[in-house]
Amino acid sequence: MNPLKFLSTAKPQTKITKDCFYSLIQPIYGQTCWQIRLGYGQELCLEIGKKIPYHSSTLSGEFKGEWQLGTRASDWAIYRKKYPATTNSDSLIKSSDYEKSINQKITKISRQKIHKIEIVEFLYLFDFGLYNLMIPDQKTTDDLPLWELFMPNNQILEVYPNFEFQLHSQDEIA
Question: Record's superkingdom (predicted)?
Answer without folding.
Answer: Bacteria
